[in-house]
Design brief:
about 350 residues; Rossmann fold; 10 strands; binds guanosine-5'-diphosphate; binds magnesium ion
Length: about 350
């Protein structure tokens, strides 16, 4: 795992999302710098805060800086040369996450397409900087015409788009391959920082991978989960991300889609969010799942972080989200373990019925 210093906004929800994103991209956050404003022309971060940042770098020696906002090429370049470190802005961090999660040929193409679009939106500016001598040796080619570079990206975009048209046809086949081993499968969905990974670890934590050869398809985000005497597979998916720019949505959906064709989707909800936020996150998450073809009856709604929440509050949350299938939801705490045994029982019952 690599390490980073995170620069983000001074807001608990934003910080917690940004940290979860870093974790999903396999960066250990050594230190967090909180700012009210990250749109300063030169570096994104204000020049006044630069000494604090440099001190933190000196002290923590991170591999990279994660900047939780979009940076223009000149800002990225200025900051990187000033700090002598690689800078990942919010969108390139998200792209890294998608890249690491994409496994079907279609989702790999979608991620590549998004990367090229990210690149394309910066192409002209980068070439301009390189011509001005502000970004010497850009791409190791030296000075060259903006059109050549831009057209090259455009050609690659077109090429991928035509490949995607063909890949679409393979989707159905891919889905069928999901249950190749005959195990029941579960996936975790929900917003970033709702507690999916914590739940994933709590549920699977103590279980050792004994018969590794049986589970060659397992990755770091899919593990086996024992339910009674049966074994199922559980997958931690890439979470829903706030403020996802339009050009990243297809890549997001395709990386999610290949994981979501499971017998059950556990929709993890952060019970500590306020009503409005919770409703907004839940509806966009629910809508996307339905769009991807997940049926409501195959979803189990989990009100996580509920260790200090009473029944009255719980009813209020269910009302707010218009969830009335009591048999399909559970208040849990991934952190304290509250109702995790009940969750396993619920899954066991769903999969194997009374006989087990
Ligand atoms: N209070 C409380 N915090 C939790 C619980 N589950 C997760 N968290 C915290 O929520 C944050 C995000 O959790 P994480 O599992 O990374 O979320 P993910 O982005 O959905 O995978 C972490 O700081 C967790 O410690 C819980 O049940 N109760
Ligand atoms: Mg996670």
């Amino acid at each position: 795992m690599k390490s980073c210093i995170l620069i983000t906004y001074d807001n608990q929800d934003v910080i917690s999302e940004a940290k979860s994103l870093c974790e999903a991209a396999q960066y250990n956050v050594l230190f967090t710098i909180r700012e009210n404003e990250l749109h300063f022309t030169k570096y994104g971060i204000s020049e006044g805060k630069m000494p604090n940042l440099e001190d933190a770098i000196e002290k923590h020696k991170p591999d990279v800086i994660v900047f939780d906002e979009v940076l223009k090429p000149n800002q990225n370049y200025s900051l990187a040369s000033k700090l002598k470190l690689e800078i990942l802005d919010r969108e390139s961090l998200i792209l890294e996450i998608f890249e690491s999660r994409a496994s079907s040929s279609e989702s790999k193409l979608q991620v590549k397409l998004a990367q090229l679009r990210y690149e394309r939106s910066r192409a002209k500016e980068r070439v301009r900087l390189s011509k001005m001598g502000e970004q010497p040796g850009f791409m190791g080619i030296g000075k060259f015409e903006v059109d050549v570079y831009y057209n090259d990206i455009q050609n690659r975009v077109n090429n991928i788009k035509s490949k995607l048209k063909k890949a679409g046809k393979q989707r159905a086949l891919h889905r069928q391959g999901r249950d190749r081993l005959g195990f029941k499968t579960i996936s975790l969905a929900g917003y970033t920082s709702a507690g999916k990974t914590t739940l994933f670890n709590s549920l699977t934590g103590e279980q050792k991978e004994k018969s590794a050869e049986l589970f060659t398809t397992l990755t770091t985000t899919t593990r086996r989960l024992k339910l009674g005497r049966e074994i199922s597979l559980i997958t931690d998916t890439v979470g829903f991300i706030s403020k996802l720019p339009a050009y990243l949505i297809e890549a997001f959906k395709s990386t999610l889609e290949e994981l979501i064709f499971t017998d059950i989707v556990l929709v993890v909800i952060d019970s500590l969010d306020n009503d409005q936020q919770m409703k907004k996150k839940f509806s966009s998450c629910y809508r996307t799942l339905v769009e991807l073809g997940v049926e409501r009856k195959n979803m189990i709604f989990l009100f996580n972080k509920s260790e200090s929440i009473d029944d009255k509050k719980l009813l209020h949350i269910m009302n707010n989200l218009k969830i009335d299938e009591v048999e399909n939801c559970l208040d849990i705490s991934a952190l304290t373990g509250k109702n995790l045994t009940e969750l396993k029982k619920l899954l066991e019952h769903r999969f194997y019925g009374e006989s087990n």
